[in-house]
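One such given next:

>
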Amino acid sequence: MSEKRASESGPGPRQRPPATPAETLSAMDHVIATSMVAQHEMAQRLGLNASDLTCFGYVLEAGEDLLTAGDLATRAHVTTGAVTGIVNRLERAGYVTRQPDPSDRRRVRVAPVQAAVDRVTALYGPYYARLTEQFNDYSPAEIAVLNDWFTRTGKLMRDYLEEIRGT
């Protein structure tokens, strides 16, 4: 049976080859490994290390609800001391600024610098455009399953990380 992309044959799912859980876990392992290599490459191109780039991603994800250093430490699973170093490096590199917390003058919030957002968007934009295009191969129901799986697996990964760290 010929496999056609949904965008080539109209809306709707395409036929998928069968896969076992073991094959799927292997495919996932390969995606994770490639993603780790890509994250390091992207970070290097942006003049950052992978941990700092990941933290900058959390800053971007927060949007207008700026993170405190403590919030960032929690999301990145690092100590507050470690996150201070990360924020210092991001600030020196021109990726973030510290802004006073309007509700507590003892705290600061971490805000992205627009020029840095533009650099990151220029690098990641083409990749995310390709990922978005790939969603055309999936029905809304399949995308919902993917989203559910990624959401649940992310929680499972965070829970397991806490478990092995003994927290």
